[in-house]
Amino acid sequence: MTHAVQPQKTQQHGLLSLLNSDGKAHPLENTLAAATLVLGLIAVISASFTHLHLLSSWAGLFGIATGAWGQFISVTTGERFVLIIGLGASALGFFLGMAHGGLFGGVLG
Protein backbone atom coordinates (compact mmCIF):
# COMPACT_ATOMS: atom_id res chain seq x y z
CA MET A 1 0.00 0.00 0.00
CA THR A 2 1.39 3.39 -0.93
CA HIS A 3 1.47 6.30 1.46
CA ALA A 4 1.47 9.99 0.74
CA VAL A 5 4.78 11.71 1.24
CA GLN A 6 4.64 14.11 4.16
CA PRO A 7 6.89 17.17 4.12
CA GLN A 8 9.42 17.09 6.92
CA LYS A 9 9.29 19.78 9.55
CA THR A 10 12.58 21.52 10.03
CA GLN A 11 13.57 21.98 13.63
CA GLN A 12 14.66 25.47 14.54
CA HIS A 13 17.16 25.99 17.31
CA GLY A 14 18.11 28.98 19.36
CA LEU A 15 16.23 32.24 19.69
CA LEU A 16 14.04 31.67 16.65
CA SER A 17 12.59 28.53 18.19
CA LEU A 18 11.41 30.65 21.13
CA LEU A 19 9.89 33.31 18.89
CA ASN A 20 8.37 30.88 16.37
CA SER A 21 6.76 28.51 18.85
CA ASP A 22 4.10 27.50 16.31
CA GLY A 23 6.75 26.01 13.98
CA LYS A 24 6.22 28.57 11.21
CA ALA A 25 8.56 31.37 10.18
CA HIS A 26 7.46 34.94 10.92
CA PRO A 27 10.23 37.16 9.51
CA LEU A 28 8.37 40.48 9.74
CA GLU A 29 7.15 39.90 13.27
CA ASN A 30 10.58 38.69 14.42
CA THR A 31 12.25 41.71 12.83
CA LEU A 32 9.87 44.10 14.57
CA ALA A 33 10.47 42.34 17.90
CA ALA A 34 14.25 42.54 17.49
CA ALA A 35 14.14 46.18 16.35
CA THR A 36 11.94 47.13 19.29
CA LEU A 37 14.29 45.42 21.72
CA VAL A 38 17.38 47.09 20.21
CA LEU A 39 15.73 50.53 20.14
CA GLY A 40 14.60 50.06 23.74
CA LEU A 41 18.12 49.18 24.85
CA ILE A 42 19.54 52.18 23.02
CA ALA A 43 16.91 54.46 24.57
CA VAL A 44 17.44 53.21 28.13
CA ILE A 45 21.23 53.20 27.98
CA SER A 46 21.45 56.65 26.39
CA ALA A 47 18.89 58.02 28.89
CA SER A 48 21.46 57.53 31.66
CA PHE A 49 23.43 60.39 30.15
CA THR A 50 21.52 63.68 30.24
CA HIS A 51 23.38 65.15 27.25
CA LEU A 52 22.13 62.28 25.03
CA HIS A 53 18.47 63.24 25.41
CA LEU A 54 17.99 63.55 21.65
CA LEU A 55 19.13 59.98 21.06
CA SER A 56 17.14 58.53 23.94
CA SER A 57 13.91 60.36 23.12
CA TRP A 58 13.99 59.59 19.38
CA ALA A 59 15.07 55.96 19.87
CA GLY A 60 12.34 55.58 22.49
CA LEU A 61 9.72 57.10 20.20
CA PHE A 62 10.66 54.81 17.30
CA GLY A 63 10.80 51.86 19.68
CA ILE A 64 7.29 52.61 20.91
CA ALA A 65 6.03 52.85 17.32
CA THR A 66 7.66 49.61 16.15
CA GLY A 67 6.60 47.82 19.33
CA ALA A 68 2.99 48.93 18.97
CA TRP A 69 2.87 47.75 15.36
CA GLY A 70 4.58 44.51 16.32
CA GLN A 71 1.99 43.88 19.05
CA PHE A 72 -0.74 44.50 16.53
CA ILE A 73 0.51 41.85 14.09
CA SER A 74 2.32 39.43 16.44
CA VAL A 75 1.43 35.75 16.22
CA THR A 76 3.17 33.91 19.05
CA THR A 77 3.61 34.46 22.76
CA GLY A 78 7.40 34.58 22.41
CA GLU A 79 7.16 37.52 20.02
CA ARG A 80 4.80 39.32 22.37
CA PHE A 81 7.13 38.75 25.31
CA VAL A 82 10.10 40.29 23.50
CA LEU A 83 7.91 43.14 22.27
CA ILE A 84 6.68 43.99 25.77
CA ILE A 85 10.24 44.06 27.15
CA GLY A 86 11.30 46.32 24.27
CA LEU A 87 8.23 48.52 24.63
CA GLY A 88 8.87 49.02 28.34
CA ALA A 89 12.50 49.91 27.75
CA SER A 90 11.57 52.23 24.87
CA ALA A 91 8.94 54.02 26.93
CA LEU A 92 11.30 54.45 29.88
CA GLY A 93 14.05 55.82 27.62
CA PHE A 94 11.55 58.07 25.84
CA PHE A 95 10.17 59.54 29.06
CA LEU A 96 13.63 60.11 30.55
CA GLY A 97 14.81 61.67 27.30
CA MET A 98 11.80 63.98 27.33
CA ALA A 99 12.56 64.93 30.93
CA HIS A 100 16.17 65.76 30.04
CA GLY A 101 15.38 68.02 27.11
CA GLY A 102 12.98 66.36 24.71
CA LEU A 103 12.97 65.64 21.02
CA PHE A 104 14.24 69.06 19.92
CA GLY A 105 15.69 70.47 23.16
CA GLY A 106 18.44 72.95 22.38
CA VAL A 107 18.34 72.34 18.63
CA LEU A 108 15.60 74.72 17.54
CA GLY A 109 16.16 77.56 19.86
TrEMBL record:
Taxonomic classification: Bacteria, Bacillati, Actinomycetota, Actinomycetes, Kitasatosporales
TM segment ranges: 31-49, 55-74, 81-103
Keywords of the record: Membrane, Transmembrane, Transmembrane helix
Protein name, per record: Integral membrane protein
